[in-house]
Design goal:
96 residues, mainly alpha, 66% helix, 0% strand
Amino acid sequence: MTRTTITLPDDLASALKREARRRHTSVSALAREALAERLGLGGAKRELPFVAIVSDPDPAHAAARMDEGLAEIADETLAGIFEQRDRERRDGRRRS
């Protein structure tokens, strides 16, 4: 196993610690599980998002179009992550 250090925003680090405590596991084990699941290494097959097939004679233009498409996917993914985090926060407040 390789030891890796990452820097997390305070709110993400707090959420990770809280979830690890809730599951009675270590932060490292939970981070490994989350990364494996996100990267499709958790056993389940991961669907690959394909932006589009770009056929453009100008490679710079084709690359720019691919970058735009990938940026959209990243924005949608991050929006989903933040929506889930916000839902979990609201649910946590309701239980308290």
